[in-house]
Design goal:
Oligomer: single chain
GO biological process, one term: regulation of cytokinesis
Helix content: over 70%
Order of helices and strands: HH
Family: Belongs to the ENTR1 family.
Keywords: Coiled coil
Largest sheet: none
InterPro entries: ENTR1 (IPR026757)
Strand content: under 5%
GO cellular component, one term: early endosome
Number of strands: 0
């Protein structure tokens, strides 16, 4: 009976040592799991900050593109108007040099030139507007893509 008790005590001691070893491993794994969770949360926050920064940059680029397109359109219109005015002045100068007063033909020619310039401005404006709309659609697609990246990272965090 004493021998059997000694054997059982020995087994109990071994089991206690094994249990303590397993408990230590469990604590280490729990600590490592907590560290991993903290690291993943920080990475998710960093990713979110990066996405927000990219979205802000996209908004700034969009505003700059719109402003540049508006300026380009205004400059084209001003250029066309000045070219028509220059042609009118040249025609008037030629008429004055030759001693002729402005006749109905000169006035009609000036009106035709002004009409042609106006049609050119309209055509250029339509082209610029189409390019601007296309650029805005592209920027919207990029913004939507960035938003979906954000949603994917949120789903990954919830799933793990």
């Amino acid at each position: 009976l004493k021998e059997e008790n000694a054997i059982l005590r020995s087994k109990i001691n071994k089991l206690q040592i094994f249990s303590e070893t397993q408990a230590d491993k469990m604590r280490k794994l729990e600590k490592q799991l907590e560290e991993n969770k903290i690291k993943e949360e920080k990475e998710a926050q960093d990713l979110e900050a990066m996405v927000q920064h990219v979205e802000q940059n996209l908004q700034l680029m969009t505003k700059r593109a719109v402003k540049a397109e508006n300026n380009a359109t205004k400059l084209k219109q001003e250029n066309a108007r000045l070219q028509v005015q220059l042609k009118n002045y040249k025609t008037e100068n030629e008429a004055l040099r030759s001693g002729q007063s402005a006749s109905l033909a000169v006035v009609k020619q000036n009106a035709d030139l002004a009409l042609q310039s106006l049609l050119t401005v309209i055509t250029n404006s339509r082209s610029s507007i189409k390019q601007l709309v296309s650029g805005a659609e592209s920027l919207q697609l990029v913004a939507d893509l960035l938003k979906s990246i954000d949603r994917i990272s949120e789903v990954s965090e919830d799933g793990q």
